[in-house]
Amino acid sequence: MRLNKIYLPVLIAFVAMTLQSCLKDQEDVFDKQSNVRMQEYLDDTKEVLVSAENGWLFDYFPDRDLSYGGFLYALKFTDENVTVACELAPGESETSLYKLCADNGPTLSFDSYNSLMHYFATPSSGNYEALDGDFEFMIMDVTEDLITLRGKRTANIMYLRRFDSDIMSYMAAVDASSENQFFTQAAGKIGSANATAAFDLDSHRLSITLDDQPDVTYSEFFFFTPEGLRLNAPMEINGAVITALSFDSNTNIYSGADSNGNNITLTAKLPDNYALIDEFEGEFTFTFGSGSVDVTLVPNKKTGIVMMKGISPGFDLEASYNKSYGCLNLYAQLVYSSNDFLIIFGGGTSSGFSTGGAGVFFIKDPENPTTYLAIPDNQANSASANCNFILVQYDGESYYLAPSPWRINNTYDISGVKSITKK
């Protein structure tokens, strides 16, 4: 006990001396106040951003669940402005303000509206949370050639990569290359191993399976490049990594090599029921349970929206092209709005109505390539509900069957949707 009584004061004195030493060292290391150090860090970051004469490629990931995959942006900074281009709008660019600030850490903020930069973050009447995109980013790491960011909303890690050529020409080449890469499947070899690949074109994700490892799937997000595609992160297969693949549009072959020098050759192909967006253009017959109506389909390659014109005297319908499956998706939608009432093309029949995501896919019939058969989409609750639509009027309190001027082929009950057929 006596030893304890002697050692305790000594120990306290030793700890106090150690703490004083540590504090002195800390003062020596941090000889400037935190706000000064932060401002210097932000100034250094701006210098790096502006120094890229040709700008930066931005690997951008909206949505915290990564539902859409990544999208390629191009950014060029001056002291005050940033010029933005995006693969979603080929040939277009838009200039706006940005700022570097201390907001719970160093932050890059695109704080004035830019329709391209804010595309995924701008809410609408039908989607008040937008597409879960970021426009404010925590700065995680800065080097001369790579800046690592983290989205403040999504916490997704994203990268700015210094670019050394004309960035708009590069984006145009990416667009041209992506137009040829509409394949969803490929098969071939990685080294001596037989392999199959699946391309999810909606989420920009590549998945590879080896025949001798059927229960293992290797998967990674990708970005289109003028040569083919680049993986967001290296994909490791059997101890070797793949970072990029080249694509030959004449042979439809993806090729490359892994880090061990094994050659990669994957020949792309389309399913027999796959249709290109151009196939949904022209005069068609829309057929459902009680009849048919002639319509004109007008696709927009840029947006993927296909307008169905002439289906009713009062309105046109909107459908979307699904690039991953090569089909058309017709869904519930508002087709007319005024101060007094709404007309809704929704899921159901005269005995029931739902404003939910009811819809149908029109998928090519391989035996009759000009006919696209209606099958339930993956959003409705049951097959009996999915292929049925109804036109209703809503006055803010109750639903009513749509009046005559708004009907399709003089009916409000578009149940048993069967097909669209090119004339």
Describe it:
The protein has 4 helices and 31 strands. It is globular and about 80 Å long. It is 15% helix and 44% strand. The strands form 4 sheets. The protein has a 9-stranded antiparallel sheet, sandwiched between helices. With 423 residues, the chain is α+β, with helices and mostly antiparallel strands. The chain starts with a helix and ends with a strand. Strand 28 and strand 29 form a beta hairpin.
List the helices and strands and how they pair.
Elements: H1 2-29, H2 34-51, E1 56-60, E2 71-77, E3 81-86, E4 94-97, E5 99-102, E6 106-109, E7 136-142, E8 146-151, E9 157-162, H3 167-180, E10 185-190, E11 193-200, E12 205-210, E13 218-224, E14 228-237, E15 240-248, E16 253-257, E17 263-269, E18 282-288, E19 291-299, E20 305-309, E21 317-322, E22 327-331, E23 333-337, E24 342-349, E25 352-354, E26 359-365, E27 368-376, H4 383-386, E28 389-394, E29 399-401, E30 413-414, E31 419-422
Antiparallel strand pairs: 1-2, 1-9, 2-3, 3-4, 5-6, 6-7, 7-8, 8-9, 10-11, 10-17, 11-12, 12-13, 13-14, 14-15, 15-16, 16-17, 18-19, 18-31, 19-20, 20-21, 21-22, 22-26, 23-24, 24-25, 24-28, 26-27, 27-31, 28-29, 28-30
